[in-house]
Design goal:
The protein is α+β, with helices and mostly antiparallel strands and about 230 residues long. It is about 50% helix and about 10% strand. It has helices spanning about 10-25, 55-65, 65-85, 100-110, 115-125, 135-145, 150-155, 160-175, 195-215; strands at about 1-5, 35-40, 180-185, 190. A four-stranded mixed β-sheet has the order 2-1-3-4, with helices on both faces. The longest helix is centred in the last third of the chain and has 18 residues, at about 195-215. The chain is globular.
Length: about 230
């Protein structure tokens, strides 16, 4: 059963939502049969990378808040992240456009490393204070999860996977995602935001029941042997 997750690497609730979903998935009885697919979503496609700009100032400018309001908001988000074992350091965070990071994720998905790429990029942005638009940084993060350095360099030097990112953004509109994180289970059920693990678990169970009905086990061959049948003595 597919679970698609629309996310942006600069979204603090997406990393928190990732952890909460993982906690739910760990408890899900059929977790081995769940295929998680990460999808690209850009919260601010026109954002210019500004390494010297404090993220509190960026948030204040973009939301029309005061610096104190922005800092209070980030402090609350930091506390939420801590509850699921994540360490956020907004004082070090680099305001960066996520376009090339999404292209790196698309490349990683081609090699079954989409989840690993998301994890690396989230940690780089929120914990390590790294510029996730910088090509040298993206090359390092990509090779750290097992991608070939030449393939990463070739991607970064071109427009490779641009159409894949755009397609994901278009699909987000089609499934009704107006913000992220946005989870779609079996293209039937949607969960919006960084919900609690029990909410995700309930959605997984509901979606699985429908998926199982639509995908019954198919026997490709049958060989009879000794067996017990209802109403008979063995």
């Amino acid at each position: 059963m597919d679970v698609e997750i629309w996310s942006d690497v600069m979204c603090p609730f997406c990393y928190i939502g990732k952890r909460k979903f993982e906690h739910a998935l760990h408890q899900f009885a059929h977790k081995e049969q769940v295929n998680v697919i990460w999808k690209s979503f850009q919260l601010n496609p026109d954002l210019h990378t500004e390494p010297g700009k404090n993220i509190n100032q960026y948030l204040a400018d973009s939301k029309g808040w005061s610096l104190d309001q922005a800092k209070q908001m980030n402090d609350r988000v930091t506390a939420m992240a801590s509850e699921v074992g994540l360490l956020y350091d907004f004082d070090k965070a680099v305001v960066a456009n996520s376009w090339d990071a999404h292209r790196l994720i698309q490349l990683a998905k081609q090699h079954g490393l989409g989840d690993a790429a998301e994890e690396q990029l989230f940690r780089a942005y929120f914990t390590e204070g790294r510029d996730t638009s910088d090509h040298a940084t993206l090359l390092e993060l990509g090779t750290a999860i097992g991608l070939d350095a030449t393939n990463v360099q070739r991607m970064l030097a071109s427009d490779q996977f641009a159409d894949d990112v755009k397609r994901d953004v278009y699909e987000a509109q089609q499934v009704g995602a107006r913000g992220v994180p946005f989870f779609v289970l079996d293209r039937r059920y949607a969960v919006s935001g960084a919900q609690q693990p029990e909410t995700f678990l309930g959605a997984l169970n509901t979606a699985w029941a429908d998926w199982e009905k639509a995908n019954p086990v198919a026997l490709t061959s049958s060989t009879d042997g000794p067996a017990c049948t209802p109403g008979e003595l063995c």
